[in-house]
Structures are given as structure tokens and as C-alpha cells.
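Title: Comparing notes on inverse folding

I've been comparing how different people in this forum approach sequence design from structure. To keep things fair, I'm posting one structure and asking everyone to reply with a full sequence. Here's the target:
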């Protein structure tokens, strides 16, 4: 049954909540130095999609060489800006970023603005779902508790996949509830489409399938659903929509799959699956990071009132929490709080339930609003007090390097290489400059330096050859040898010789411990030569492949 129409006063309160959420979520929107590890890759993916759509010759779309040409374009782009993660990450959010680049200009702010759009989408979908399962007051409370939670708000500050995936899962859950409630096939088709989009945003959205199946099983509708012809047509549609993603993930994301199922955190991987130390890891993160203690305590009270009042709809959200926990606990990856972002809505709903079940009491409404206002105020204040992650220095270094480079070839050796690469692209609309990374050319590794490490250059002579072959004339170096490999120290010692001129020392200011208490050093290579090779091998252990990439023509400008 459709829910009652929204009242004017409720729409006004939802509008006020929306403005508050967007206000605290927009912090850092205009500060390109606000960023998160991995967000640079996602930002660069969006820039790639934008540039591909703008530059590629689509007259070959119906010709036999379209795929080969597109592949070569991607390889050449990666050679110029070696900070892409497409293939190991799905392309839907980068495609949305590209749309925002076309609409609002190519900038870090445009990418962050797209996250505000997903936040709005998630709020509307979640509010509508709770309005259908319970009532509009509960929907307002649950939406406010979810989208003002500091843990949720912080992921709107950086171009990461968590908020887009969460928003699409909430849309999918809303559509699935309509199917489960009405049995109408059209809602199942919409559910499959929305879930496919969620998977194309983040593969771990797969957890929603056991969630939905468990609900159909518990409500006694699974057998009837599986015997319907429309169900298998919808499933076939879902397979067709996601099969290319599965192929892409297996082809380009083998390392990510191995890390997910085998683990990179050896301390976790060696724990027994039945040990409390293993089972409690995400529970600890829930208490320590994801929700304030008052909201968690209120969630427990809400679960108790749901049990006492036999709230069948609340079981749907309990299944959300359980399937999220079981799905991600079963993966032997690092225990990272953002992985289980999907269960936070369930706790927000339970925190709003006490007043739903006590709504018959005359005192419940005013007390409920007072408590909710206090909790929303607490979470908003915590979000305001939370400092966004940032790193300052690399944007200035990129601009300085581009200004002084005569060859257009800039060598960067440091842990924040992705953002440096982004800043080069963002400040170079003509795409005349190329970034060459020390952790691609001196050595390469997968995820961390200690995983699948390959050493490509072993001595000073090899470094000289590398600089000469690629025509590198400007080098940007983080002072600290982040890789802890000898070849990177040999490079740093070489830079102190007369072969180089130190153009500027730029202090790094950052919230990241790996970047604190050091400088960026910008050098000019006095003996720079035009590039002497037309192709070179670029090893990318993360996707388990090496690529032969072109060296764009160019020479030292006078």
C-alpha cells in the first residue's frame, strides 16, 4: 500500500534537514588539498572518462578497430597520468564525475559536487523507504540520524565510492520493498536495474542479494518468487547488465579479488573463523568509529521495542545489519570501517524506532523531537569539529614543475603521487605534460610496497639511463624514502650532486602520518636530453599486468 501523502510541515522539516546535511557535507568543496588516499585514483578515473569522451574519435564506433583504438587510448592516457584505477574499480561513478566535469568545469570541486548529488539521492530514497515501512516521523528521524552521522558525512568530502554505492543500495532497497510489498513485476525489474548500477559503482554491493533473499525466505515469499517467469527474466537482465563487470573484474582486478578472499592482513587471516577476536573486528569499528555511543544505545532500545511490539518491518533492517556483518566478516581483507558503511542505515532506523512504538502515548511526540534534536545537534557538532584529511604542498609543486619543465616530462617520487598527477592534469587543459612515477619506473608493487614488489632499476647508471631515455628535466621528490628501497635512496643522493639544481623546497602540511615532518624538493636536471625511446614497459602488479606504452613525441623547448 502507498504511504499517506506528506504534510506541508513535514516537507518543511525535511527541507531544513536537507540544507543542514548539505552544509556540513560541503566542507572542503572548494579546497583541492582536502583529499583521502585512493580518492586521487577515483578522481583521475573521472578525468579519464571526461577526456576520452571529449577527445576520442567515435567515428570508429561501428568499425572493427574501435576496441583496439579505445584500448590504446587508455594505455596512452595511463602512460601520461599513471594514477588510474579503472578496471580494479568499476566505472560508473567516474562516468558521473565526467558528467559533472562537463557541466561545471574540470576541477576537484566538480567531482566533490557529484557526491552531494548522491547524498541527496540517498536521503530521498531512505526517507521514502522508512515512510513506507513505518511512518513519516520515523522516516525523518532515521534520515537525520543517518546523514548527519560524522562517519557518513566525512565520506562526502572525498571522491570515494562509499557514498555513491550507499545511495544506490538505498534506492535498490526502496524498490525491492515495493516489489516485496506489492508483488508487481515492474518493481523487481527496477530493483535489478538499481542493483546493477550499485554493482557497477562498487562490487561489494553484492551483499544486497543475500539480504533480499533472506527477507523473501522469512516472509514466505521466496518459493513463489522463484517460480515466477518474470523473476527469471529479471535475473537474466541482471546477469546481462553485470556480466561485463564480472569479466572486467576478473581480467583487471585479480589482485583485489585475491586480497579480498585470501587477505593482506596476516594477523586477521591467521585468526580462527570461530574466534571472538575474528568475529568482533567490525563490531569494534562500529562502536569506535561509525556511530556515536548515544545513537548505538538508542538503537539497542529500538531493537527491544521492535521485539516487544512484534515489528515485522524492523526485521528487514535487522537482516540488513546481519548480512552486511556476515558478508564482510567472511572476506579476509583488511578490516576497514568504510567497508561496512552499508549497515549504518539499519542502526539509524532502530535508533528512531522507540518513538514509533510509543507514539500512542501523548508525551512521546514532544520527547521524541527533543531527543532527536539533541542527537542531531550532537552529530552535526561532531561533524563540524572533525577535520577533513588534507595534504598541502603537492599542488604547488605540480604548478611549479609545469612552469619550469621544457620537455613536459616530470618525474615524481613520493607516496602522494596520485594527487600530484591529478594536479598536473587539472592545471594543464592542453594535456602537454607527462608524469613519470618513481614507484612505476624504479620499482613497482601491488597495494603496498611489500606486495609483489619488482625492482626495475638497480643502480645509479640505471637512473641516468632512465632520465635520459624519457627526456625528464624536472623531478619532484618527497624528502623521505617512503618505499624503504635502496634505489630510491640512491636517487635522493644523486639529486644532491651538481647534475641538479634545487628550484624550491616546499614544506608538506598533512593529516597523513606518512607525509608529516618533511618537504617536497623540486629539482631541475641540468643534463636533460630529448627522449630517445618511443615505447617503454609499465608494470602494474595491482592488475597483474605489464603494458607497452608509447612515449609521446617532444623535445626540450628553448
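Reply #1:
Here's my take.
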Amino acid at each position: 500500500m502507498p504511504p499517506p501523502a506528506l504534510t506541508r510541515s513535514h516537507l518543511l522539516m525535511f527541507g531544513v534537514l536537507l540544507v543542514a546535511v548539505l552544509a556540513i557535507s560541503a566542507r572542503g568543496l572548494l579546497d583541492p588539498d582536502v583529499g583521502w588516499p585512493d580518492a586521487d585514483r577515483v578522481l583521475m578515473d573521472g578525468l579519464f572518462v571526461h577526456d576520452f569522451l571529449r577527445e576520442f574519435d567515435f567515428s570508429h564506433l561501428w568499425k572493427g578497430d574501435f576496441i583496439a583504438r579505445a584500448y590504446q587510448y587508455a594505455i596512452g592516457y595511463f602512460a601520461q597520468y599513471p594514477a588510474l584505477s579503472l578496471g580494479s574499480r568499476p566505472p560508473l561513478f567516474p562516468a558521473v564525475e565526467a558528467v559533472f566535469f562537463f557541466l561545471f568545469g574540470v576541477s576537484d570541486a566538480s567531482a566533490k559536487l557529484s557526491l552531494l548529488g548522491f547524498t541527496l539521492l540517498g536521503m530521498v530514497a531512505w526517507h521514502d523507504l522508512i515512510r513506507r515501512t513505518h511512518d513519516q516521523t520515523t522516516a525523518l528521524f532515521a534520515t537525520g540520524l543517518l546523514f548527519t552521522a560524522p562517519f557518513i558525512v566525512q565520506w562526502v568530502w572525498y571522491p570515494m565510492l562509499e557514498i555513491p554505492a550507499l545511495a544506490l543500495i538505498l534506492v535498490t532497497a526502496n524498490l525491492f520493498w515495493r516489489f516485496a510489498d506489492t508483488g508487481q513485476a515492474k518493481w523487481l525489474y527496477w530493483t535489478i536495474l538499481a542493483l546493477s548500477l550499485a554493482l557497477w559503482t562498487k562490487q561489494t554491493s553484492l551483499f544486497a542479494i543475500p539480504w533480499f533473499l533472506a527477507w523473501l525466505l522469512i516472509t514466505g515469499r521466496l518459493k513463489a518468487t522463484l517460480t515466477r517467469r518474470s523473476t527469471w527474466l529479471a535475473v537474466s537482465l541482471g546477469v546481462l547488465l553485470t556480466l561485463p563487470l564480472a569479466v572486467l573484474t576478473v581480467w583487471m582486478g585479480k589482485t583485489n579479488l585475491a586480497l579480498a578472499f585470501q587477505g593482506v592482513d596476516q594477523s586477521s587471516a591467521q585468526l580462527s573463523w570461530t574466534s571472538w577476536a575474528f568475529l568482533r573486528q567490525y563490531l569494534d569499528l562500529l562502536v569506535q568509529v561509525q556511530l556515536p555511543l548515544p545513537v548505538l544505545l538508542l538503537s539497542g532500545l529500538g531493537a527491544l521495542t521492535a521485539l516487544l511490539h512484534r515489528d515485522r518491518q524492523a526485521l528487514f533492517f535487522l537482516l540488513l545489519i546481519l548480512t552486511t556483518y556476515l558478508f564482510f566478516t567472511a572476506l579476509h581483507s583488511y578490516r576497514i570501517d568504510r567497508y561496512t558503511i552499508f549497515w549504518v542505515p539499519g542502526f539509524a532506523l532502530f535508533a528512531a524506532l522507540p518513538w514509533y512504538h510509543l507514539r500512542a502515548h501523548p508525551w512521546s511526540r514532544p520527547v521524541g523531537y527533543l531527543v532527536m534534536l539533541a542527537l542531531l545537534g550532537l552529530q552535526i557538532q561532531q561533524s563540524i569539529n572533525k577535520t577533513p584529511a588534507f595534504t598541502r604542498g603537492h599542488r604547488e609543486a605540480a604548478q611549479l614543475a609545469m612552469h619550469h619543465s621544457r620537455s613536459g616530462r616530470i618525474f615524481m617520487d613520493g607516496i602522494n603521487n596520485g594527487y600530484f598527477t591529478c594536479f598536473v592534469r587539472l592545471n594543464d587543459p592542453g594535456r602537454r605534460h607527462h608524469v613519470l612515477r618513481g614507484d612505476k619506473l624504479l620499482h613497482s608493487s601491488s597495494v603496498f610496497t611489500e606486495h609483489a614488489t619488482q625492482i626495475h632499476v638497480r643502480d645509479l647508471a640505471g637512473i641516468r639511463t632512465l632520465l635520459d631515455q624519457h627526456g625528464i628535466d624536472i623531478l619532484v621528490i618527497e624528502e623521505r624514502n617512503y618505499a624503504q628501497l635502496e634505489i630510491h635512496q640512491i636517487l635522493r643522493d644523486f639529486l644532491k650532486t651538481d647534475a641538479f639544481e634545487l628550484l624550491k623546497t616546499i614544506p608538506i602540511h598533512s593529516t597523513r602520518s606518512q607525509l608529516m615532518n618533511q618537504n617536497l624538493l623540486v629539482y631541475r636536471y641540468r643534463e636533460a636530453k630529448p627522449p630517445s625511446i618511443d615505447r617503454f614497459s609499465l608494470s602494474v602488479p595491482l592488475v597483474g599486468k605489464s603494458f607497452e606504452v608509447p612515449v609521446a613525441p617532444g623535445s626540450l623547448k628553448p
